[in-house]
């Protein structure tokens, strides 16, 4: 061991991602590779010839620090000592690092004990990743729970909103009761937005992309994130701001994480300014972006700011923030923006605030084709078949359709819907519109029912109805053969409008 060739073997050991330390027969350090030096924050020149426990100081409890004297055991038994659990190493500067040390006896060519090898593994980042995984699993479970709750809540809101809108139809608009019902509707509208946002956060469909109105997306998710905080937000969007193509849930997560970061940087309150503008990025640019049209978003707060030395690391996993400690929030933001072929920049001044600048590929607005509506089917002659597994929804929807002048027929699940549709078709009394709830407990749901209806009648006009606003069928109904989507909850006027649109196609 005394003849250890540091110049040759040492260079090789410096490439190992574990701490390698050699002790002599007395337990004194004769070599530490670069990882071990970085781990303990002590250079070899300082650590050399010191008893190893003077360098590897292990924390036992919050109030007691002990030396980790496993060398004595190896010296006595001449057997390896493998640590079963990680310990907390106190570095030179007092930083706590979670490590796992294994002590291996070393023998010379005459099988004489000549020292000990310590292999030190840094478990800190691994533990952080394990915690992040556990949090992700918990969030996934929470997402599934909140998704189910939001769906059921939308069913309740459909009943309330439907009955309120029916009651308003028989009232004078100048009456006090009409005004009270208007206020109730406004409250339900806010609840509807909240459930839609919950469903977006909980959505498991992370790859599905759609054309998004960026101003609407920002306002919804910012409002949701700032709810209950002492931070205000102002928006500045031009009227001609272009749309973007992306995953609503993922981009919502980007907005949420940045706004959370801004709120935490303003513990006593403050203001966030959000603006957007259209831009054309040329082929040669410093942003690592493809040539084309982009929407540029700026999210600016007046918080405590980020030191210049930290700006290059804020998007690193487990970046240590003075506000949140180690977290993945901004690393997730960077990853999502990259997935959308965009870019994100950050600029900050300590004491003044932070600006996040996001570049997202834009979708050029297409000139809408004017459709000439043909003579529609009078409501009093239009037959509507409704399938929903909630009795209270069936009742309120039947009242709404009857009030509007439609002939309503109600069923609970898919098999009954197919049966009655075929019966009416055989009598030359075809249903003009069918409304299918996508989620049916214990029965055939809307998607399967739709497939069977199209086999019976390829020209069937069918609306997909659901409280799951992020459902892939709702966001892309035409690909599944539906003529439209009816999102719960809805008013009488909203129901009437979509029915007339479908009837006049």
- Return the CATH architecture of the largest domain: 2-Layer Sandwich
The Rg value, from CA coordinates, equals 33 Å
Estimate the strand proportion: 25-35%
Number of DSSP helices?
15
Average predicted local confidence, pLDDT: 82
**Quick one: CATH class of the largest domain?**
Alpha Beta
Strand tally, please? 22
Number of domain modules: 3
Please identify the structural class as seen in this structure. alpha+beta
Q: The biggest beta sheet, please? A: 8 strands, antiparallel
What is the fold-level CATH name, i.e. the topology of the largest domain? Heat Shock Protein 90
Question: Which outline best applies?
Answer: elongated
CATH superfamily (homologous) name of the largest domain: Histidine kinase-like ATPase, C-terminal domain
Work out the helicity level.
25-40%
Write up this protein:
Helix 6 (124-169) packs antiparallel against helix 7 and helix 6 packs across helix 11 (391-404). The chain is built from 15 helices and 22 strands. The strands form four sheets. Strands 1, 2, 3, 4, 5, 6, 7 and 8 form an eight-stranded antiparallel sheet that branches. Strands 9, 10, 11, 12, 13, 16 and 17 form a seven-stranded mixed sheet that branches. Strands 19-18-20-21-22 form a five-stranded parallel sheet, with helices on both faces. The chain is elongated and about 105 Å long. Strand 14 and strand 15 (325-327) form a beta hairpin. 39% of the residues lie in helices and 26% in strands. The chain folds into three domains: 9-122, PAS domain (Beta-Lactamase), CATH 3.30.450.20; 210-366, Heat Shock Protein 90 (2-Layer Sandwich), CATH 3.30.565.10; 379-503, Response regulator (Rossmann fold). The protein has helices spanning 9-13, 34-40, 44-47, 52-55, 71-77, 124-169, 176-202, 214-226, 248-264, 329-339, 391-404, 414-426, 446-456, 472-475, 492-503, and strands at residues 19-23, 29-32, 57-61, 64-67, 81-82, 87-90, 96-107, 113-122, 210-212, 231-236, 243-246, 270-281, 292-301, 319-321, 325-327, 343-349, 353-363, 383-387, 407-411, 433-437, 462-466, 484-487. The termini are far apart. It has 505 residues and is of the alpha+beta class.
